[in-house]
UniProtKB/TrEMBL annotation:
Origin: domain of life: Bacteria
Stated name of the protein: Uncharacterized protein
Organism of derivation: Frankia alni (strain DSM 45986 / CECT 9034 / ACN14a)
Residue segments, region Disordered: 46-68
Bias type Low complexity, positions: 46-59
């Protein structure tokens, strides 16, 4: 995995991965770290902060201590062919979600988005395929 801060600043994101926080900030952060670890070995993938001009992660004021980021969003950048990489990212996300049928991840590419769950049915698989086709991924 390339250095996210040097490479991502000049690259265009291909996908944004949102993990719902469900009110538990620490669980969401743990899930984001887990998914990041699964995505790290993907060749040509760059995980990094959002592109310039992206608002920073939301922060929730705690009763004690500093504000805690509450937006476990992962930004995916490409150092290789976008279509192949997007499919590989989706496959990793689907496998990650399959470990716990209650996991849900939202993949966003521009104005289009799709949710991936732990137990996708045939209809959801078609929606994911349409998302990849429609976004040119």
């Amino acid at each position: 995995m390339a250095d996210a801060f040097s490479t991502a600043s000049s690259a265009q994101p291909i996908l944004k991965i949102e993990i719902p926080d469900d009110g538990d900030v620490f669980r969401s952060e743990r899930l984001a770290r887990s998914l990041r670890a699964d995505l790290a070995p993907v060749p040509g993938l760059i995980l990094g902060p959002g592109p310039a001009g992206t608002p920073p992660a939301q922060a929730k004021a705690q009763t004690k201590g500093p504000a805690v980021p509450t937006d476990p969003t992962l930004w995916i950048f490409s150092a290789t062919a976008v279509g192949t990489l997007s499919r590989m990212v989706v496959d990793v996300v689907k496998a990650w979600c399959a470990r716990d049928r209650h996991r849900t991840v939202r993949l966003v590419n521009g104005e289009k988005s799709v949710e991936v769950t732990g137990r996708p049915d045939a209809a959801q698989e078609r929606i994911i395929e349409n998302f990849l086709r429609d976004t040119g991924s």
